[in-house]
Amino acid sequence: MPIIINLDVMMARRKMSLNELSEKVGITLSNLSILKNGKARAIRIETLEAICNALDCQPGDILEYRKDNA
């Protein structure tokens, strides 16, 4: 998949646990885990906004596009 989710990287930089982010954003642990592990098929803009607000970052810090070499 050419879209890479760097949520774990940003969480580590901010020293924030999955539980803490879940509470701040208002997303269940299981849904946040799916997103963190790159298994999500979509993300709502308001969810991305809440995550960026909680982690004090930009969407580009979380989402990365890598060209598929196939």
Automatic annotation (TrEMBL):
InterPro entries: Cro/C1-type_HTH, Lambda_DNA-bd_dom_sf. CDD domains: HTH_XRE. Residues 7-62 form the HTH cro/C1-type domain. SMART domains: HTH_XRE. This is Helix-turn-helix transcriptional regulator. The lineage of its organism: Bacteria, Pseudomonadati, Bacteroidota, Chitinophagia, Chitinophagales.
